[in-house]
């Protein structure tokens, strides 16, 4: 499930800002970008992610700033003198003028140095970073919860659409055998009348029974109702994504079976409507954990 969370914390002259983003993935993948010197807490951050999430590609970015610890800039006079002596020697040899402006030398490597910064407290900074990361993950979860609630409502709506079409099939299916018997009787009677022959009732009944057996969708209707009930119940579970994926596959399988048996325009229309709802289920489930 996609989501975003951010948090900031500061203490002892250190400020930390953490941003967490997640996108869809069948598995849980964590990518962390930490400042230099904090690699040892990466496993703890990943553990915090796994405690909260089960699926998704999670990217964590950290920005850390320290105040009052910057080192003092000093002039390396010996390096500057060396550069100037080399420049004057080169100028005498080539007839060119040596730089007379001090700023030209200050830009050269090593002329200006930064003294060692005031040492900080690595343990305190690591704890601060970890706290901000956990707060950002909690914000991410809150974002995902809101999005998940909206998706659950959409899923329930599609399940109701499936139930509506299933009710149409359940109402229509029992009359198909009788309609087939009447059409078959009328057609064969017409053909036999032309030939001056008759068809025995037993033969007609046998053909109707064969058709009714092939077109019977009672078992498919029962299984579809069971799957739809299970789907609705799973929406109240934690991290139901994989279970819903499986149920959607089973629902689609039963719909395809009904479609293969549907020798009727009304039944076929209901099947088309159900397949459209299943496609919407699949689209939504791509974002659900």
From TrEMBL:
Residues annotated as signal peptide: none
GO MF terms, alphabetically ordered: hydrolase activity; RNA endonuclease activity
InterPro entries in UniProt: YicC-like_C (IPR013551), YicC-like_N (IPR013527), YicC/YloC-like (IPR005229)
Residue intervals of the Endoribonuclease YicC-like C-terminal domain: 169-289
Domain Endoribonuclease YicC-like N-terminal: 1-152
Keyword annotations: Endonuclease, Hydrolase, Nuclease
UniProt keyword Transmembrane, yes or no: no
Pfam short name (any one): YicC-like_N
Cofactor: a divalent metal cation
Family (UniProt): Belongs to the YicC/YloC family.
UniProt cross-references to PANTHER family, sorted A to Z: UPF0701 PROTEIN YICC
Protein name: YicC-like family, N-terminal region
Organism encoding this protein: Alienimonas californiensis
